[in-house]
Write a structure and sequence with these properties.
about 300 residues; serine acetyltransferase, domain 1; UDP N-Acetylglucosamine Acyltransferase, domain 1; 5-stranded parallel beta sheet; 8 helices; about 35% helix; disordered C terminus
Length: about 300
């Protein structure tokens, strides 16, 4: 039908092409980032088998990724002066590649969320190829696996490549739920110890950050301390909102309005927004959603039932 909107389609043949493209990008850390990221979000389509060393044909795109990733992980382990770097690199890469099917499944939910959440989206292919959030989130999900496999350097290199390309800064340690969508994206910051639930939508300029750092006797920040907030399921956070602190939680099904500055926990089904110079936090009414007023400044909103 002329002018009809295309329906979301499963990631099929285009995904196979994307995986092949990732392997052919040449040398360097940036190319590895793109190659592994594309392979993860567009990888094998039907009933993938568990990855085992020697189980992939030499002409399979996954074999190229395997070879490159072993080399890059080994470099990072040697930089950190770890013992048996070559052996560890082989084991880490095998473990990582075995998780590609699950990575692809969860990243597909991000693509689905972008298609469902953006009325300007015309096709799944457009989202995969053009939306900055898909690159930034998929690279972070890849980096998150490597981060928990205790690979030095490479996880941060992957997310900083995504940061450089998209303006979206997500630490590899952050825990992201399924169906995660960042609309527009520029200026979003998500810290290392933040957790984000399922079906969360952020707009540009949102910060999930730390309000202070614990320091040791010499004044240096203590590593590994919970510093960033937790966001519940089905939360929407509008542009330039700032949510700070490791003990701050935004309850499920809540809405955070534009430019809100929040450093305290709010319960499930809450709405937080500015009215004049005052922050209002109240219970969310049934089927309530926030839309920006046509002629309103950024602090004010119209409420749509």
């Amino acid at each position: 039908m002329p002018g009809a909107r295309r329906q979301a389609e499963p990631l099929g043949g285009a995904g196979q092409q994307g995986a092949a493209l990732g392997v052919g990008l040449g040398d360097g850390g940036e190319q590895l980032a793109v190659g592994v990221g594309i392979a993860a979000r567009l990888g094998p389509v039907a009933h993938p088998r568990p990855f085992r060393v020697g189980s992939v044909r030499s002409d399979d795109p996954l074999a190229g990724i395997d070879k490159r990733l072993v080399a890059e992980v080994e470099k990072c382990l040697r930089f950190a002066k770890l013992d048996q770097a070559a052996k560890q690199a082989r084991e880490i890469t095998t473990s990582f590649l075995a998780q590609l099917p699950e990575l692809r499944k969860i990243i597909k939910t991000d693509v689905d969320a972008a298609y469902a959440g953006d009325p300007a989206a015309r096709s799944v292919e457009e989202i995969i190829l053009a939306y900055p959030c898909v690159l930034a989130i998929s690279l972070q999900r890849v980096a998150h696996v490597l981060y928990h496999l205790r690979v030095p350097l490479l996880p941060r290199m992957l997310t900083e490549y995504g940061h450089d390309r998209t303006g979206i800064d997500i630490h590899p340690g952050a825990r992201l739920g399924s169906h995660f969508f960042i609309d527009h994206g520029t200026g979003v910051v998500i810290g290392e110890t933040a957790t984000v639930g399922a079906h969360v939508k952020l707009y540009q300029g949102v910060t999930l950050g730390a309000k202070s750092f614990e320091v040791d006797d010499e004044g240096r920040p203590i590593k590994g301390v919970k510093r960033h907030p937790d966001i519940g399921d089905h939360v929407t956070i509008y542009a330039h909102a700032t949510i700070l602190g490791g003990d701050t939680r935004v309850g499920a099904h809540s809405i955070i309005g534009s430019n809100v500055w929040l450093m305290k926990t709010i319960p499930d089904e809450s709405v937080a927004y500015f009215k004049g110079e005052n922050l209002i936090v109240r219970s969310r009414r049934k089927k309530e959603s926030l839309v920006e007023g046509r002629n309103s400044p950024t602090h004010d909103h119209e409420w749509e039932i």
